[in-house]
Amino acid sequence: MLANQPLADRLRPKNLDEFCGQEHLVGSRGVLRKAIESGNIPSFILWGPPGTGKTSLAWIIANTLKRPFFHLSAVHSGVKDVRETIEKAKKQQFFNQPNPILFIDEIHRFNKSQQDSLLGSVEQGIITLIGATTENPSFEVISPLLSRCQVYVMNPLGEKELKSLLHKALEKDLYIGKFDIEITEYEALLRISGGDARKLFNALELVVAGESDKTAPEKIIIDNDTVLRHVQKNLAIYDKSGEQHYDIISAFIKSIRGSDPNAAVYWLARMVEGGEDPKFIARRMVILAAEDIGLANPNAILLAQACFESVNVIGWPESRIILSETAIYLATAPKSNAAYMAIENAQALVREKGDLPVPLNIRNAPTKLMKDLGYHKDYRYAHDYKGNFVKDEFLPGEISGTRFYDTGYNPREEEIRRRLRNMWNDKYNY
Fold first, then answer.
1. What's the pTM?
2. Spelled out in words, what is the top-level CATH class assigned to the domain 159-230?
């Protein structure tokens, strides 16, 4: 054991039976286990959060199948490194020998040309590619390469798996095992890990190192307070540029749309703790106020706009209060997507019908020639009539009577429906 070797490396599993979690892939009925047992694995991409065993699984597969193994990190490798590795792989091809495995960590960091350089060797079977990524391959891996690879999803480790890893460390690690350690509370360790085995082991090492510095401790008791004392900060798992950024803002918006203020505030807190840009959050609430609340409560967009302007001036940490107030207001407001659907419907018809002519009576007539051609003729000025309304035709003749705006089912829009029905009678069937 190297003195400076991290606990996660010291306890890296050597075979599938030692591998923790991902039962859907490597359990007794897992698709990857079956492929490994058959000795015939396809090129594939492992997609999942950090610390779920992507690198370990790649090593295990190579060792189990006794294949040459090449490891590149997309952070440090370029096209030249890829080509050199492929050339090495070619030289190891003998008769019916299985092809080498090329493992590329963080493959999403490869640009298009770097990914292009892999295509030929994957297609010709020179290498079996195993890519690891924390980002959605649909967005980060080029289509030609993605079509040649299976995608397997790696899940964050659950409580059961994380506790199992802790007990493994206490029982089997040569350094940790020297101490008499009892874990009386798991909550802080599990929370800090966030389903990441590497973070879990790092936290355990910090705690043991800190407690073992005490004069000849007879026993090390690990509880929540001990963990938080040594692991100074519980870092939220939140990548502002990654997939989770979009997942959490999606959950936030859907919670507001679903009129759940509690869920909305929770997802807001996740973004606040993760250091999300407050202007990004506020901007999305302005959009939501128009799309999902609209005319059911026109004040919603005013409040959302005020929130956006306020966070531009104030910033963290006080902005969280303004964002919270706005999120709760929007979540508890009546909902209507009628305005959103109106423009959607209108655009669809425009795309279908093309540029229909503007009726002559509502055309602009700035010149005598236009007036002589009938532009603006017979136009009736609404304010000259009782109630500031006169029944006229404002749509092209071909689509006359088409209803784009269908009022939502809320008190305010029900009132709008009654008013429109009184004005237009049965023209739009309100």
1. 0.58
2. mainly alpha
pLDDT in tens, 162-205: 999 999 999 888 888 888 888 998 988 888 887 888 889 988 98
CATH of domain 243-332: 1.20.272.10
CATH of domain 22-153: 3.40.50.300
pLDDT tens-digit readout, 62-113: 989 888 888 888 877 777 888 888 888 887 766 567 788 899 988 888 888 8
In sequence order, the 6+-apart residues with CB closer than 8 A to the CB of 168 are 11, 20
270: tokens are: 């996740």
Domain boundaries, the chain: 22-153, 159-230, 243-332, 356-424
Report the candidate in 357, 347, 361, 370 with the shortest Cα–Cα distance to residue 390: 361
Q: Is the CB of residue 413 less than 8 Å from the CB of residue 295?
A: yes
CA dihedral 172, 173, 176, 180 (to 10 degrees): 20
Least confidently predicted of 25-39, 50-64, 73-87, 120-134: 73-87
Decide: 256 and 266 in contact? Cβ < 8 Å.
no
